[in-house]
Amino acid sequence: MSLNYFKPTLIAISFAVFASCSGDDTSEMAEVAPGQVENLVATPGNQSVHLEWNNPSDSDLAKIIIRYDGKTREVNKDQNSYEVTELTNKSEYSFLVTAADEAGMVSEVVSVAATPDEYVSAYEATEVVSGTYLTDGENQIKFQITIDGENYKRKFVSGSGFQFIWEGTLKANADGSYTKDVEYYGVDEYGNKDHVAYLLQQNVNAYSFEFNGETMFSEVAFEKIDGDENFLAGTYRIKSSTVSSDKESYNSEYERIATVTENGEYTITQDEEIISEGVWSNDDLLKNKVIFVKLKNRTFLHYTIEDLAILQ
Fold first, then answer.
1. Do β-strands 3-4 and 122-126 pair in parallel, antiparallel, or remain unpaired?
2. Most-buried pick from 23, 252, 292, 308 (CB within 10 A)?
3. Where would I find the H helices in the chain?
4. Nearest to 291 by CA among 49, 46, 52, 91
């Protein structure tokens, strides 16, 4: 899973701790404190902050100590990141990080600040991964999608055994979109084509992405066209055009617009008619029921994750 929050990098500041020594030239040298952590970065999330750093190279390094908001967390010496959770959104937190060795000596402090907020979890899209995908959601018809390079096949089997099939090619375009050229036909329970086939062409925003250890496939999603790419509020659009090869047998175009307010209220319209409305809460964001997928500087919204096709 590639999970990012796309926030500005927050630069860590180190503070030297000075110690004075007394005695003459024959006194024993004091133990040397370990080196400080380096390249400390804080990435704010939703009620969380993700900390990353480089550990010092001291051979007797024992642990990393993180202090914030009156709390102390200790991290194993082999670990170089930590997720701070249960924070309050829109409140700034300062994180003080030190390294400690086996003798209890502590390094210089390195500090960084960050402010969590209602950020939407974002996942990096990749090119379409070949394989067989199945949708398994409760909110839509279940499909089997098979992709082998540019070869594409989508199949729906009804309860009576009748099949609807879209079969052809799915070819990548330079802008990251795909063009789908398919034959659409039905197959009866005996394996015979049951009605006239259509040759269809459709432009889609297809991609794969990793989510909760699974490879997902999407070819229909709302693209954000207005608003901050890190937050839910804004305007989104799905624009689809599907035509038959003769331009007459089948011709379908539609545009859906989703508008989301600062408090998560959303309205989805098509041809200026409301087809869906409701509220996405911050709890939906925290539980990843609503996520973003990033594709070549474009942001896509997914809010029915359970209905996406999963690689088998």
1. antiparallel
2. 292
3. 282-286
4. 46
